[in-house]
Amino acid sequence: MTSNGGSGFGAVGPVERRTLGEKIYESLRRAIIRGDLKPGQRVTERELAQQLNVSTTPVREAFRRLAAIGLITIVPWSGAVIEGVSKDDIAEVFQCREVLEGLACRLAARHIDNAGVECFRALISKFESEVDIAQMLQIDGEIHALVLKYSGNLRLSSIMTGINEITRFYRELTKVNLKRVQEMCNEYQEILAALSLHDGEKSEEVMRNHIRNSFEFSQASEQP
Questions:
Q1: Exposed, middle or buried: residue 132 (CB in 10 Å: 0-12, 13-18, 19+)?
Q2: Is residue 186 very low, low, confident or very high in pLDDT (cuts 50, 70, 90)?
Q3: Residue range 4-82 in CATH 1.10.10.10
Q4: Cα 14 to Cα 150: distance, rounded to the nearest angstrom
Q5: What is the 3-state secondary structure (H, E, C) of 32-63?
Q6: Half-sphere exposure of 203 (CA within 13 A, CB side)
Q7: Second label for 78, Cα 20 to 30 Å away, from 19, 103, 138, 179?
Q8: What is the pLDDT of residues 97-121, one digit of tens each?
């Protein structure tokens, strides 16, 4: 690798040696979704390992995970090419989320018990009292994970894990305002009410509405 100015790797922050493969993966994924690593840019395991002062093994692990979710394409003997995430990619991902998480919520309405309802209620309360955006997004993820858990469909959960790998950092880049936070709270309450009644059709409807609103907000927030 040449100097940082020519490579663009300077956008990938330093990585602690603790849980090294995971941290490299997280750092690269964030840089790709932010656009710091550009589509078409070529990177190699050796160059990136030298840049981060690590061995090639955790870099290879990170490359495999990134390739699995479509953020890079591995070219044998040549390294990897950054694919990036376009607006069309994000739109497609949200379309998948709307359908699949709607289904998950319909299934969860069949299986959720009193403990699940109370856990959902507690997460909403926690979300409402939180002021840190990063923590709000963490709680939002816990809410969606709870729905997937009670769906009882392991294959669906596995598919959603891959999709959420793409959306997680993109959501962090979206500037959530107080109006959207209140809307999210209202949407959570609607989902909880439908789940409490074990109304599968309504549960799917309100979850799909929640995902659709999240996408529309993310698009609006990108407008100048």
A1: exposed
A2: very high
A3: yes
A4: 38
A5: HHHCCCCCCCEECHHHHHHHHCCCHHHHHHHH
A6: 27
A7: 19
A8: 999 999 999 999 999 999 999 999 9
